[in-house]
Amino acid sequence: MVRPPSPALIALVLAALPAAAQESPLPELFSDTIDVRVVNVEVVVTNRKGNRVQGLEAADFELRVDGESVPVEYFTEVDGGIALTSARGDATETVSSLVPGEPVPTNYLVFIDEYFAVRRDRDRVLKRLEEDLTRLSSHDRVAVVAFDGQNVSQLTDWTGSEDRMRDALAAAPERKALGLMRRADQDPLEGAVHAGSTWPLSRREQRIQRSVLAAGATVRSFADAPGRKVMLALVDGWSTPSWNTGQLERLRSPPSVEDLYGPLVHAANLVGYALYPVDLAGFRPVFEAGATRAGDASVGYNDPGRGSGGLALAAQSPFSRPASFNIEWRQEAALCYLAHETGGVPMINALRDSALAEAATDTRSYYWLGFAPPRNQDDALHDIEVRLAGRPDLRVRTRRSYFDLSKSTEVTMMVEGAVLFGDAPGKETLGVRLGAPKRTRGRKILVPMEIAIPLDDVELLPMSGLGRTSWSSGSL
Asked: What 3-state class would DSSP assign to 132?
């Protein structure tokens, strides 16, 4: 199935590019930025009690893409954050970015949705994140980004410095939280518009979509990170689309959670992020006539224990519950969808207070599989399924799809990152100094430009096969 890879934010960026630049052949500039030629699949295997299963080999796994078996070409088990050597010596290579016996870094991208956050809840979670920084290893890195409904702000780029991490998390509570304004947007049909021809978007859902697109743009911009990649999305009010039985009779297709959250899921799977959405508000019990117990509201994720990774939506229809319980159900269901599709775990209810610690523990032990699919570069979405042959007692958690990324989309992602953050996150910027502008013929102005390139990034080559190096200078 082919899905449009460019949400509204990307479309605006591309619209600003010269037409000739969009139509010209795309050079091989970004091949080392996003590893899309080999698809990496991180797999968590647990038994029926939720305990991790270790010691499996590549031959134990069956990898299926769009229903067809494909060979596992790269395989590494990671245990306690260390890449292990295969015991059996299967005919598979080690995942290229991993060295047996060496630590595997994990990159934690913290995305704070200030647009829907309530200050009290946001600050509580931020404080707990700061307290749990000690749970990270010395090889792990953290980046912190905040979205206020209009702009995405980088509070810190990738850093392994605990001081810089603490400074960023301490600065976040000083920013505004706009969630109380969003609480008034409860009418599911107010300001409804049609997204395509399937389901109506309420005003509130349009605003959720804005945050979702911002989160998707953020993971694409932070794609270049060696090691395991995790996004902790600190959100509130994200829920499944509003609908009722009356609406279903009027719609040609029933509403789907993928319509609203698919852009973030597909962006995360595209660049190898597992989503660990954090419910800022936590469990909010509401007592109404007909409610049997407060715990009934927590129905989105029935097995929230560490490492279980199961997605268990309630069998009972939300329409049979009071409206207030439906809100809790819909919000938890949305976060479960984000985690389930990308191989992460939803941090709902009490898990919000230990989100970073739980994510750090969950990403310490897993299997890393890789395969090189045929590439059409057509931005097609392909399903991924991992099985364990002959082991029905074991459960598998992993991402569920990948994109066959086109070169134009790859360039779009780089441009998008530059627009959002001034440059690709994690990359050093070149020093640029502009001289005094001078008038030239016609209506043109000449601006001298001096670019400072670090000597370590300069490769010296012999000229004309003479075996010597020549330096030349010029002006732009």
From this structure: helix
Strand order through the sheet with 401-404 = 68-70, 61-65, 380-388, 401-404
Establish how many alpha carbons lie within 13 A of residue 316's alpha carbon, considering only the half-sphere containing its beta carbon. 14
Amino acid letter for position 375: R
Residue 355 pLDDT greater than 90, yes or no? yes
Q: Are the beta carbons of 179 and 237 closer than 8 angstroms?
A: yes
Integer-rounded Cα Rg, in Å, for the chain is 24
Per DSSP bridges, beta strands 193-195 and 199-201 are antiparallel
Q: What is the 3-state secondary structure (H, E, C) of 70-117?
A: ECCCEEEEEECCEECCCCCCCCCECCCCCCCCCECCEEEEEEEECCCC
Query: Which residue type, as a one-letter code, is found at position 334?
Result: A
State pLDDT tens for residues 49-72.
989 999 999 999 999 999 999 999
Cβ 160 vs Cβ 138: under 8 Å: yes
Arithmetic mean of pLDDT, 367-382:
87
Task: Return the percentage of the chain with pLDDT > 70, whole number.
Answer: 65
Helix (H) or strand (E) holding 261: helix 257-271
Global pTM reads 0.74
DSSP 8-state secondary structure symbol assigned to residue 308: T
DSSP 454-474: -GGGPPP-BSTTSS-B-----
**Element containing residue 194 per DSSP (H, E):** strand 193-195
Residue 305: what pLDDT? 36
Counting Cβ atoms within 10 Å, is residue 49 exposed (0-12), middle (13-18) or buried (19+)? Answer: exposed
Q: What is the pLDDT of residues 140-180, one digit of tens each?
A: 999 999 999 988 999 999 999 999 999 999 999 999 998 77
